[in-house]
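Section 5: illustrative case.
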């Protein structure tokens, strides 16, 4: 995200300052300003996952600490907000998929429902999900994957995605999403209905 005020340093400027003086006061101040600038967005991303204010605050703090520690690995291939969103997304997914087992010692196993899915169906679903993930990673860059995820999973409007990713081109996220979808359609090949025509 690039600030509107030309006197305000951009994210890239703050990253350079933070890395140039990592342990010094100037670097610490730059890093603090950089992460503070994105703190609200990180909290909102976490809140969408948890639907719980306290847990969202905890997760947002974890994400910001991870970003601080990983800042030297930021390569600048995408915007800082996109990179930070990927960290938040991964942390929230881990949180959401963590198993929460409840043991009921008084349960009668004969009374439990037997509607378990067929193991073959589960395996096929996992293989299909893996193929989709591979397709995304092979054919889309990080910003395209993030924009697509924000649109499909987070159901964010195009304007919000444009703002969060710091896109300054004329078409914003709309053009990015169209390009990502075209790449995926080309990668998947012709639609079966089209082949039969």
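Designed sequence:
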């Amino acid at each position: 995200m690039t600030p509107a005020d030309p006197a305000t340093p951009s994210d890239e400027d703050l990253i350079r300052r933070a890395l140039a003086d990592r342990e010094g006061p100037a670097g610490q101040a730059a890093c603090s300003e950089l992460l503070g600038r994105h703190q609200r967005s990180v909290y909102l991303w976490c809140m969408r996952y948890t639907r719980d204010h306290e847990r969202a605050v905890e997760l947002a703090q974890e994400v910001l600490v991870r970003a601080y520690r990983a800042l030297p690995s930021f390569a600048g291939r995408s915007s800082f907000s996109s990179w930070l969103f990927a960290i938040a997304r991964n942390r929230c997914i881990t949180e959401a998929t963590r198993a929460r087992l409840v043991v009921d010692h008084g349960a009668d196993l004969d009374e439990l429902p037997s509607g378990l899915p067929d193991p073959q169906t589960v395996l096929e679903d996992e293989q299909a999900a893996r193929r989709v993930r591979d397709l995304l990673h092979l054919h889309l860059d990080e910003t395209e994957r993030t924009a697509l995820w924000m649109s499909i999973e987070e159901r964010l409007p195009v304007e919000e995605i444009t703002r969060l990713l710091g896109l300054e081109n004329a078409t914003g996220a709309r053009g990015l999403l169209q390009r990502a979808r075209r790449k995926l359609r080309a990668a998947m090949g012709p639609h079966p209905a089209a082949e039969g025509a």
